[in-house]
Amino acid sequence: MASNVNPTVRRRRLGQELRRLREAKGMTAEEVADRLLVSQSKISRLENGRRSISQRDVRDLCGVYEVEDQRIADSLMQMAKDSRQQGWWHAFGDIPYSVYIGLETEAASLRIYESLLVPGLLQTPGYAEAVIPGTVPELAPDHLDKRIQVRLRRQERVNDTERPLRLWVVLDESALRRVVGSHLIMREQLDHLVEMSQLPHVTVQVLPYDTGAHAGMSGTFSILEFDDAADSSVVYIEGVTSDLYLEKTNDVHKYTIMYEHLRAQALSAEQSREFIAAAAKSHADGAR
After folding, report:
1. What pLDDT does residue 138 have?
2. 1 pLDDT tier (thresholds 50, 70, 90)
3. Cα-flanking dihedrals φ and ψ of residue 206, to 5°?
4. pLDDT at 288
5. Contacts of 96 (CB under 8 A, 6+ apart)
6. 49-58, 72-81, 189-198: which has the highest mean pLDDT?
7. Which residue from 56, 91, 95 is spatially nearest to 77, judged by alpha carbons?
8. Which of 72, 109, 246, 259 is the 20 to 30 Å CA partner of 230?
9. Which residues contact residue 232 at a Cβ distance below 8 angstroms, ignoring those fewer than 6 apart?
10. Picking from 48-62, 178-192, 243-257, which range would have the lowest pLDDT averaged per residue?
């Protein structure tokens, strides 16, 4: 287990600085790639923070960009060193969404729209044990156990008394009605959801079926925001074989507007708690 340095965020910040230096030099990624005899895709991956950056890469790029201030070069080299450390999630082996976990671990606030299941940060162990093999049916038993452990470890950010994650969830009614595991598991899960929604930094709103058409019907997404002004907001869209991270200001703005519409269409926080409690009772009746 490494220190509290977050390698995902370090890579992202370093990539942003390298992009800034390239643009200040008036060079394209293709021109830089030609100078260093590497592929253009490598330069793009270094700048978007999706891969580790070696100190040698930083040294070579500083040479291309003619960075004369040694303090800047030293700072970038240190960021490259930090970016190669391991976050807590690496102890669990190869986690396919490790980039997202790194961002989530550092985020100050997270807005989620989910249509089919309870978000991982609010799942009970029983629900997680039932939903993970359901969504990834070919997952080996040992990998299932790791996924569950990682999911529960991620929840520490929500329960952190010193630096809790500001969490806002808009949840479609489908996630409350679908029986994952059993009616008993669902009752426990929805009771837990009501309990968590009463925390001052957690808001849960429900979109009932009778809301009709709404802004989230094109798919689920999350918006991560950070305390450090150097870290731009990120829209995360989960995929089956690969995930999408949107960081351009215009993209983030469009999804932010979509989320505001979802919040406006959903039940209020208090109405949602009553709605979830009633759904939990229906599962309790179904379990008899």
Report:
1. 83
2. very low
3. -110, 140
4. 65
5. none
6. 189-198
7. 56
8. 259
9. 16, 226, 247, 249, 252
10. 48-62
Tell me the mean pLDDT in the region 110-120.
97
**Among 9, 211, 231, 189, which residue's Cα sits nearest to residue 98?**
9
The Cα 57–Cα 64 span in angstroms is: 11
SS (H, E, C) the chain: CCCCCCHHHHHHHHHHHHHHHHHHCCCCHHHHHHHHCCCHHHHHHHHHCCCCCCHHHHHHHHHHCCCCCHHHHHHHHHHHHHHCCCCHHHHHCCCCCHHHHHHHHHCCEEEEEECCCCCHHHCCHHHHHHHHHHHCCCCCHHHHHHHHHHHHHHCHHHHCCCCCCEEEEEEECHHHHCCCCCHHHHHHHHHHHHHHCCCCCEEEEEECHHHCCCCCCCCCEEEEECCCCCCCCEEEECCCCCCEEECCHHHHHHHHHHHHHHHHHCCCHHHHHHHHHHHHHHHHHHCC
The whole-angstrom separation of Cα 102 and Cα 125 is: 22
Residue listed under structure tokens 């890579």: 11
- Burial tier of 68 (Cβ tally within 10 Å: 0-12, 13-18, 19+): exposed
Tokens of 5: 């340095």
Distance in angstroms (rounded) separating the CA atoms of residues 286 and 277:
14
